[in-house]
Amino acid sequence: MSDIQPDTKDWTWVLTRACPDCGFDPATVHPTAVAGHIRRDAADWVGRLSQQGVRSRPAPGVWSNLEYGCHIRDVHRIFDHRVQLMLSQTDPQFPNWDQDATAVDDDYGAQDPLVVAAELRDAADTVADRYDSVPADSWERRGLRSNGSEFTVATIAVYHLHDIVHHAWDVS
């Protein structure tokens, strides 16, 4: 994992304009539609994780499909926790998450692809169910990252969706 460069960019700009790489446009997404997108993306990942060569990196410094699958699984878990906090607390501050350290510490490349596929599907279903159950009057509840970035349940749903769309583009 040491040849992977940490991603230190602040991606919150994807909430206000289209991503020039993957084409994701936040203006075309309603937060209540995010759950369906997450479920469809999870089904695609189950397929990707069953393919031959899932552990192979396509180029130096680029994650394998297995490593991306582990990351997507963990993204779903992190966002589910953050949405839970937003729905149960007033203006919670999210715990920091170092995705690059997690990839190394959890040895993404050595994990079992079939186990990861099942865990990714479960995590996607859990967070999709969470988005589906957001009361209409709770989409504007707030949460904060430690760097001060402010999200609402609605904007974090869209931000979450960009993350998985972008990674699907990364592996395509």
UniProtKB/TrEMBL annotation:
Protein name, per record: DinB superfamily protein
InterPro entries reported in the protein's UniProt record: DinB-like, DinB/YfiT-like
One Pfam family it belongs to: DinB_2
Domain spans labelled DinB-like: 39-168
Gene3D superfamilies for this protein: dinb family like domain (1.20.120.450)
Organism (species): Mycolicibacterium neoaurum (Mycobacterium neoaurum)
Superkingdom field: Bacteria
